[in-house]
Amino acid sequence: MSTLTLIAVCATMLVTNFLSGLFGMAGGVILIGLLLVLLPVQQAMVLHGITQLASNIWRVVVWRAYIRWDIALVYSIGSLIALALWSLTRYVPDKAVAFLMLGVTPFLTMVMPKNMRPDAESKPQAIGYGIGCTGLILLTGVAGPMLDTFFLGGKLERRQIMATKSVCQVLGHTVKLIYFAGIVVDPGTVDYLPAGLAILMAAIGTAAAKPVVEMLSDKVYRLWANRIVVSVSAYYTCYGVWLFAGPLFD
Amino acid sequence: MADAQSLDPLILDLVEWVAREPRPYLELIDAWRTSCPRLTVWEDAVERGFVSREGVSLPSTMVHVTHEGQAFLAAHGRV
User: Which helix (H) or strand (E) holds B62?
Assistant: First the structure.
């Protein structure tokens, strides 16, 4: 990785983690989008996986008393099934597919019929979401919005949701690392300097957001959080379509 | 972001917690602000008029349950 790319990656990490700390969402989605612009798909997935693992492992440690291990265990069966299925094909999405899926994902949960209510305590659903979310992580690098939908269905309390979701995210990103750094035909390498810097930037960005969070009014938060998700998703969808359509006009 | 309906059980918990005794705003935000998933429990409870803030200067701002909040609790058998 060139020095210029390394500086760009560090700046990206800092800004996206600041945003993530501020709004409690969207950081991972923006980060993977920018990494996909800067790096090849495999390298972007590996670097993204390392930073997401670091932040989610920290959450697991902090909230460990509230983890619903029964749900996490069943979900992990789904994750492993997804890894096995993907490993058979060793499919690596090209950037157009990754961007398109990344752009459409937040809207998938909005168009789900109301009567298909997710239930986090249903074992068949936990396996289904394990397969779906892990498959999505291997396609786009993230599955946060879909996972949120699953955990908000059912009767889990707030801390159980955060804790158990973090365990599932650790699983998903571990599967992503195993897949993109080990299983695919041309795996991405783990470059330790960018990985270490990425984790450092994540910590600085998140800490810098804390005082700003205190100043942010609740209404301003809601307005901007929605704007960010819609704008980022729309941009990714358009960029994905453009990447698809570009070769047609060559 | 989750829609308000899916957060109802958590909103009930928050309103019930405030109904037991008025809480300092800073304590409430510290206890209920979450990230990833960002759960807008507090924001939804305020928008739907179940709780209200009293006092302007931040350290002394208190959060109280409203009549709508009491009715919401009663409708769900929480009083």
Answer: strand B62-65
